[in-house]
Amino acid sequence: MNKPMILVIEDDPAIRNLISTTLKIHNYDFMTAQNGERAILLATSHNPDAILLDLGLPDIDGVEVIKKVRTWSNTPIIVISARSEDSDKIDALDFGADDYLTKPFSVEELLARLRVALRRAHNEKPEASTFINGDLKIDYNAGCVYLNNNEIHLTPMEYKLMCVLSKNVGKVLTHTFVTKEIWGVSLDTDISSLRVFMATLRKKIEKDTANPQYIQTHVGVGYRMLRI
Ligand code: CA
Predict the structure, then answer these.
(1) pTM greater than 0.70
(2) Which domains are assigned to the chain?
(3) Cβ distance 43 to 72 under 8 Å?
(4) Alpha-carbon distance 116 to 35, whole Å?
(5) Cα of 86 to ligand 1 centre, how many Å?
(6) Span from the CA of 13 to the centroid of ligand 1 (angstroms)
(7) CB 46: neighbour CB atoms within 10 A?
(8) Are the CB atoms for 194 and 178 separated by under 8 Å?
(9) Cβ-based neighbour number of residue 95 at 10 Å
(10) pLDDT, block means (10 residues), the chain with 228 residues
(11) How many Å lie between the centroid of ligand 1 and the Cα of residue 146?
């Protein structure tokens, strides 16, 4: 495989250099942009394998970059945000970002997130009728879920939730996204119901619900199914 090409969008020179140096050492190709307009241009002309996007840009909002890129590309986007931009981070995920890093972040964390994102893109087969992840298997046509080859019985709501998570494996999904996928709308009461369904689903698929293997909780944000 060729070296993955990463587009780094960051106006802060210190952080941009840190990211670029890290990518170089770890054998990634990269391009950098200091503002959103340039970023969109580079994304369009080079079709990067992943995008690292700072949300606070000098010209346009980082979320606008996501909206533009998502009109034609499904390339993984990892958002980099300051703590003060927490609500922007949720908007970014709702508009199609895969994941987020909060400043200050470690180089190891950055590399780990990037690996997950690239793997997600590499494994993506949206039309597949079977989903396999570790000991978990979903047959979408039959509507059956198996754990260690034993069928597990899910309620229709748990099954819907499982499908939303598995079809977006590797991506952080916001509460709003998940509830909209399940109920078509997103009300605060749906988010409480979602927590209930999540708890019962976890009891059926996780060995240890206190240390879930399949479904991660992102406090105040949402959930992610991990690719095992
Ligand atoms: Ca910035």
Answers:
(1) yes
(2) 5-123 (3.40.50.2300), 130-225 (1.10.10.10)
(3) no
(4) 25
(5) 14
(6) 9
(7) 12
(8) yes
(9) 18
(10) 91 96 97 97 95 96 95 94 83 94 94 91 76 95 95 95 94 94 83 93 94 94 93
(11) 45
